[in-house]
Design brief:
The protein has 704 residues and is an alpha+beta fold. The strands form eleven sheets. An eight-stranded parallel β-barrel has the order 4-5-6-9-11-13-14-15. Strands 20, 23, 24, 25, 35, 36 and 37 form a seven-stranded antiparallel sheet that branches. The longest helix is centred in the N-terminal third of the chain and has 22 residues, at 3-24. Helix 2 (84-96) crosses helix 3. Helix content is 23%, strand content 23%. It starts with a helix and ends in a 5-residue tail after the last helix.
Amino acid sequence: MNEKRKKYLQQCTMAMLSAFLLLLSGCGSAAPTEELPETPVAMVQGKDFCLRGSDGSYTPTFLNGVNIGASKPGYFPGEFGITEDDYLRWFQQISDMHVQVIRVYVGQMPAFYDALEKFNRRAEQPLYLMQGLYMNEDAIAQYNDAFAADSGIQESFYADICKTVDMIHGNAEIEKQPGNAGGVYKADVSQWTVGWILGVEWSADFVQGTNDAHADQKSFAGDYVQTVDASPFEVFLAGAAEEAISYEMSQYQQQRPVALSNWCTTDPLTHPNEPDKMEDAVSVDTEHIQGTDAFTTGFFASYHVYPYYPDFLSYDTKYQAEGNPYLAYLQELNSHHTMPLIVSEYGIPTSRGSAHRNAVTGMSQGQASEAQQGQWLIELNQDIRKAGCAGGLIFAWQDEWFKRTWNSMDYEAPDRRPFWYNVESPEECFGLLTFEAGKKKTAVTVDGNAGEWSKKDLLTEQDGLRLSVKSDAAYLYLLIEGDDYDFAADTLNVPLSVLEGQGNTQYQGQQFADGADFLLRLHGAQDSALLVDAYYDVFQYDYAERNEYYPLLPGQLEKNSGQFHSIYLAMNKPLYLPETDETTAFERLETGKLHYGNANPNSADYDSLADFCATGNVVEVRLPWMLLGFMDPSQKQVLGDFHVLGGFQAAATEGVCLGIGRADSRTAIEMPLYSWETWDMPQVHERLKQSYFILQKYFAGETN
């Protein structure tokens, strides 16, 4: 038997004996357990993460898994809207994907642990839990000092740690507080909990602020945790780890491996060509935090690593030289550590929009189809394995509507994000499970088939063309039909008005009955796009008027100029690369350009990124709400006149006025109003993405 293991069992026996003697004498707290504790479910041995088998032996195991968020549509994460039935269904689907680990970031509602216990007791192969011990990020942003007096940061963190330990042991009754889990916890899932991950993605300011304010605080020595050459912030983390281990030992006589949450921004490596100084300003190194002989299960390293952020993954010369920056980075990171390294987040979003690009591999934060997501996740998983890491946890199981992305969040109503699906925002679209609008099916499947439409959907007829309209929590849908319409040859104009008192009343000699804030130009599969009135161009306002990255364009400062612009999203501002002494150009994405394809998930040629599809004289189009200036379609809120308001504020609208005409017609296009009922709880149904089934085969060993 391993000597550390033998010592651990001896310590547990002595602890039990001591507790028993205390009870006999009428002193001390209640005995934690009546029986000798089980051997740990997991243990670190060298660079291996090992799981206990049925015979009690430990086997090195590469951990494949997924991260599960705390939210579903209609709920912020602090509202914990996921039910026990939801979890049971998801656990089965995750298990069917042939992965063995789920990770959560915070202590969950009892429904989560109840479901996990129920599932595992009847499952042939259990799902193991990697439990996060979360830290209040509001306090972090306020103080930038982990030890700040009167901040309550350390005290709150320790209290949450203890509560979460009790939760997984099914031994807690916690009053429900806004934003925090609570209730009666009776399900003991400790036998399947393989590790703790403490903390969050640390901001460099928080780490540096702590280090600067407490420069003399460089060591920690506890019963289970000690430091070597530690920074003050690492001392803070060592104390938190001590709290987790010591509390679980005192109450339950159990240990399990512990990690300290980390990411590329605060990794222990140097990145000389990183353009953002704060992305390489300070390090958090788990190697400086070690277990004493009393801590037998061991530390492991946990990192969130994505292929497109930070920018050094695109521009660091030593990684570029390898041709695969992601693999090269992981190899260097893993070689730094003497303990197992688990990539606890890696992912690719299936959003229509994008926010970061890997300049070497093209693996971007967004604009991946579901099929591409699946294939890229396989490649990333293979890189994680090649680098010698001990596991990889996909981010994420489900899409999360409440999330925000840096290049689009200013154009949304922040308190209404969970109530509609913004496919322009990558952060909402990381899941292998998506939530489609509609109780049982989407309002429209964009595949060029008009079978889902009826006469009541017809809005207007003009120039021998018929325009029908529908909508849901994700899109505005259009059906265009014409008896003599040639999709490949003809050009059609669809003007759309969302905000009264502005917009173009004509374009290239064609008149519109209302001021058009947007113009949909349809001309075949490769040359179709949604354009925006120059005055209502958010990108130009943000990056030409306010920040001068681009020149002003004709019509930008005047209403009804007759000018329409292509629609763009910012990808990267100019970056100075210090090692190579270069400055990159501003990167932008033409998000208004329409992507042709079949958006029917049941079709052999399914393309999840498809915006429109044609069959004969029928065209179906889906337009994301944000692309049409909506800050919140659920309450009919659009971007107000930002030139007058001096920024992005919501304005009420009655709906969308729109019509249709041929581009060469000189008949004014009528634009009747399309409206809808507002909502506070979206109607949705679940669908496993194409990527799920691709990964299912991979994890089953059916594909390489």
